[in-house]
Write a structure and sequence with these properties.
By secondary structure, this protein is an alpha/beta fold. It has one domain (5-297): 3-Layer(aba) Sandwich (Rossmann fold). The protein has eleven helices and nine strands. The protein has helices at 41-49, 78-91, 104-115, 143-148, 150-155, 158-179, 187-194, 202-212, 224-229, 279-282, 284-297, and strands at residues 5-8, 12-19, 25-30, 52-57, 66-67, 97-102, 122-128, 240-245, 267-272. Strands 1, 2, 3, 4, 5, 6, 7, 8 and 9 form a nine-stranded mixed β-sheet that branches. The longest helix is centred in the middle third of the chain and has 22 residues, at 158-179. It is globular and about 45 Å long.
Amino acid sequence: MSPMRFIKTPLLNVAYFEHGTPSAFPLVLLHGWPDDARTWDRVIGSFTAAGFRCIVPYLRGFGPTTFLDATTLRSGQLAALGQDVVDFTEALGLDKFALIGHDWGARAAAIATTEMPGKAKVSHLVLISVGYGTNSPDQQLPLKQVHNYWYHWYMALPRGLDLLRSQRKEFTRYIWDIWAPDWPLGDAEFEATAQSFDNPDWCDVVISSYRHRWGYAEGDARYNGLEKRLYPPPVVTVPTLMLHGAADPCNHPMTSEGKEHFFSGPYVRKLVANAGHFPQREQADTVATEILAWLNRV
């Protein structure tokens, strides 16, 4: 890993890593849950070897990223995550860049992209494991996906918060095991990532995120305007690649089907064979190859 860096946005002191030549075209890689910036370790080498600069932040509530003000609501609502990406890229002074996100990071990347179309800053969008247009609390879910979202419903209960606070590592390790059943996960790799869950704001942000998206928690009022702009989901105008693990036990591949009407630019959806919910970890070479081909194609 490169040395950790920090930059302040209006609300956060964001911790991030940077790889590659500083003058190269930037890729901003956004992790999901339960994960952290290390999720990209297996693909970064391919990106920098291809001549890209990789910028890899920790999301709010993860790792060394902290809030600047103790009174700021520790919201995990998706609008907040998306605005964080806008603020982060502006703080870095990025003129044009590609956004690549997995899970929470994919949702945040899509929101940030739709918030910056007039500035033409985002050249390409890559979504991994999350279909666009699936953030609304009133969305209809097939029964299979209702089953897959058991952890959402559990975190809506008081005992869900108790579990996060008392057994966060046991819980997240269990999630990793069931979401990537065919991927041999070593204890050292998990422990390196799970350190990010010791952030004192992690539990509050996680509970907020899963409760808010189903209407079980209030959001931060500062994002009320953005929330209104997200429903119905705005059309994405930049070239977008959707990569979904063919055996994803969290977001079933059916959840990313039929989304073409949300995109006015080039849009391609591909399934990653032999991958569960973490394709960038499980099938890193395939993911890197697909992303590089997309960046060079359009």
